[in-house]
């Protein structure tokens, strides 16, 4: 087939496809604050949430980030966003359970963090609330979904919430508008590569 | 079981777990520039790449972003990152094929974008190169993997590259160090919610 014939067919096919896409878009008319969940054991859950923070800041809106596990170490995302005037960054943990080895301190950190997160979930000026790695203190029983789900449901109607972490609880998935499950197809760590600056932290 | 007994067992269990984790970490000693692929049809591929840009900038390093499909519209991530002195942002497309409906223009944009991306892939000062939605011009046959894969393989050894987009080609997956497949479990769009500012763009 000649290039010009390919081009002509492409134009016809994409024109028809646009009608299908436009019809779908025409049906999606609702604006609302979304509850998004990034779960699964692959790389990309927290980094995706931080990408949404960048988008939010790009529109001059405010974001609040509550980091429920990492915390002891200054990570790149915190160095970058914490300095931004439209970001509230709260450290709500001191590390993985096997690093802290202190159940009571982990519980206290998670609960103190959740109290702060509730403030953001009640503030209509906050466009995006990131509850980073919230699934872990929930799954460990340190925080109760009976507290969390009503606070999320009662938030300002245009506020977006992103929850990240492995093994998101069924109640979180059910309440969510958008859920992505990130599958670990391949990971450099298993080939002997340690966590890399700018990529993993 | 009493709280103090729970705490004691937790400490013992996490201490043992730390030995396992530390042994794994001790085996991962390599530092190298990674090729990361974020594929699958769920939400979070590009936003994850932008989160890694934030991490990179948090360490005072440089990032270069080549956006192969989106482009006509000013999106939040571009508004945010394009203004940053350590970011090179290149628009390498004018929209989805069904929006442009112009095969020759799409091919020309993709090829011009790839020529610019090759410059970044040869520059050791660039810590992270994002080839956002590169999978589409590859799968459409507009760009050749015979050009792309050697340029990626020959890049500076500590430079990281992130490729995003659905249906990543087998050659890209094979060459990658880390691959995440993002599954669309649930998406607000199918419930009639249109793309939301700060979340989807």
Automatic annotation (TrEMBL), chains A, B:
Its EC number is 2.5.1.17. GO terms for biological process: cobalamin biosynthetic process; porphyrin-containing compound biosynthetic process. It is an enzyme of class 2 (transferase). InterPro entries: CblAdoTrfase_CobA, Co_AT_N_dom, P-loop_NTPase. Pathway: Cofactor biosynthesis; adenosylcobalamin biosynthesis; adenosylcobalamin from cob(II)yrinate a,c-diamide: step 2/7. It is found in: Cytoplasm. GO terms for molecular function: ATP binding; corrinoid adenosyltransferase activity. It comes from the Bacteria. Keywords: ATP-binding, Cobalamin biosynthesis, Cytoplasm, Nucleotide-binding, Porphyrin biosynthesis, Transferase. SUPFAM superfamilies: P-loop containing nucleoside triphosphate hydrolases. Gene3D superfamilies: P-loop containing nucleotide triphosphate hydrolases (3.40.50.300). One of its GO terms (cellular component) is cytoplasm. Residues 1-25 form the Cob(I)alamin adenosyltransferase N-terminal domain. It catalyses: 2 cob(II)alamin + reduced [electron-transfer flavoprotein] + 2 ATP = 2 adenosylcob(III)alamin + 2 triphosphate + oxidized [electron-transfer flavoprotein] + 3 H(+); 2 cob(II)yrinate a,c diamide + reduced [electron-transfer flavoprotein] + 2 ATP = 2 adenosylcob(III)yrinate a,c-diamide + 2 triphosphate + oxidized [electron-transfer flavoprotein] + 3 H(+). Belongs to the Cob(I)alamin adenosyltransferase family. PANTHER family: CORRINOID ADENOSYLTRANSFERASE (PTHR46638). Required for both de novo synthesis of the corrin ring for the assimilation of exogenous corrinoids. Participates in the adenosylation of a variety of incomplete and complete corrinoids. This is Corrinoid adenosyltransferase. The gene is cobO.
